[in-house]
Description:
Two copies of one chain form a homodimer. By secondary structure, chain A is α+β, with helices and mostly antiparallel strands. Helices cover 24% and strands 35% of the residues of chain A. Chain A folds into two domains: 4-67, Arc Repressor Mutant, subunit A; 74-225, Chorismate lyase. Chain A has six helices and ten strands. The first copy, chain A, has a six-stranded antiparallel sheet, covered by helices on one side. In chain A, strands 1-2 form a two-stranded antiparallel ribbon. A two-stranded parallel sheet of chain A has the order 3-10.
Amino acid sequence: MPSRRHVIADDLRHQISSGQLKAGERLPSEAQLATRYTVSTATLRSALALLQGEGLVEKIHGNGNFVRHPLRRITYAGGAAAPAPWTAFSAPLRMTARTTNIKAPSHLTTLLNLPPRSSLNEVLFTTHEGKTPHGLAHIYVPHGFAPATPPLPEQIAARLADLRPPLSEVQERVSARLPTLEEAETLRISPSLAVLSLTRVTTDSTGRVIEAALLVLPGDRADALFTTRFVTEERSSKK
Amino acid sequence: MPSRRHVIADDLRHQISSGQLKAGERLPSEAQLATRYTVSTATLRSALALLQGEGLVEKIHGNGNFVRHPLRRITYAGGAAAPAPWTAFSAPLRMTARTTNIKAPSHLTTLLNLPPRSSLNEVLFTTHEGKTPHGLAHIYVPHGFAPATPPLPEQIAARLADLRPPLSEVQERVSARLPTLEEAETLRISPSLAVLSLTRVTTDSTGRVIEAALLVLPGDRADALFTTRFVTEERSSKK
DNA sequence: GAGTGGTCTAGACCACGAG
DNA sequence: TCGTGGTCTAGACCACTCA
């Protein structure tokens, strides 16, 4: 039953968790490891692939295999807690933003409930903690609503708060999948490591979509938390 | 740049989406496909692995590779919508339940905020649509709260609604990861297909944990939806 | 037992990174 | 240039499913 690659993966996993292999350290070369475990390189690589999928090992082509730094887990706070993604994370993160004005492609017009070829602002966020990327967010704001020149998140957040008509509903759809090659590259994660994909649509009281955000978070170091509080006194009415 | 396995995967993917290969159909054997694409079996298998991770292909050892049936996406409705998981799904699903009384292991005592070695009821749900499993849920209820003999979900739901003191908070934590081997087996999904992992903790107004649920949903056919409505200052009428 | 996928080998050659 | 990981081959043998 226990295949060789699982035995090897278990051994390496134990070496990592026990501290024999430290974070950031480079593993012996695949050829050396293959010799040590007396397996072929293909088998050894499939063992490393398991660890890679768990986020324990990072492979760098032409350089080596490295023990990933221990993951400081970040939490995306959903629901009532967060009207904007940059305020939705538990830890302060360095982020970069780039705003561009685009013609809405079809999948966005349906999401934002806009006529085809509408003009809207796309803000691309990448959040980092140190050098390692932590998240990826595409945020779409129609109607020239976003600040064009200074892409400061605070401004958008402030405008959302003072909005008239007020925002009335936030829908957040969460799914799990493997990253696209592009996402894996920018997040510097393995293509076999699951990501958490969030689609958030904010609507005002007239039913118009104010903002849509597509977030991608690496599954090994991020999760989303939704808290719902019930009002105790009046729980008689039901829909 | 384009590796052979990606070219092959693209071709097969197109054959599936275009209908040349129909749902449920068996693909040609790996040996035949390897000959057709003039690659080795190892390369062809790595191409199939890509499709497997996308949920397009199901491998059955000793039998063949099959095109998976088109996924009817199910939605887990979180937040205020759902006090119980069996009411939280968009589509009616057949489910089986098994109740056992266990001594709480340590990871559960911290989650439920209970003293060590507490006795609690574990309910294991598996939901199906037709023959294919859709979800997996472990639900833990302390204090002999769950119905012991008839594990009918309605009874638990009813008790939760009439609870005194009333429930006051639901916390749902969502993460994305690869399934364990056991989960992959019971859900009949590939070990390389991401799953959505939900941990829900329900607390009553005294801060006591009423129920904890651990849900695992296959990422290719399930997502979770959280809706938050904001009440405006003035009294808003129900629509 | 025949045919399928699962695992593994012992190489070859290519692509990348750092000195 | 040298050592690394990335891709691929042409087999071998094992484990499973089904008739």
